[in-house]
């Protein structure tokens, strides 16, 4: 799977595929009508994240959504940008 796919399951937003520069704009648009009432984002189906994907996830987290999952690249990007586990700026 390459391009990201976004769907909703109850109060969980699920993202599958690659969350990278090529997928972020379409993923952001797809997420907007699904966000109301959502509590978390499930990344179990995400193959990899780049800095554009991290920015999307950080925005979702800043708006109160819990980010669940650790796709390839996320830990390294969090460390590089000094973000904590909830994608906020660490101390």
TrEMBL record:
Segments forming domain STAS: 12-60
Gene3D superfamilies for this protein: STAS domain
InterPro entries reported for this sequence: MlaB-like_STAS (IPR058548), STAS_dom (IPR002645), STAS_dom_sf (IPR036513)
Coiled-coil stretches: none
Source superkingdom: Bacteria
Pfam families (alphabetical): STAS_2
PROSITE patterns assigned: STAS (PS50801)
Listed name of the protein: STAS domain-containing protein
Species this protein is from: Cognatilysobacter xinjiangensis
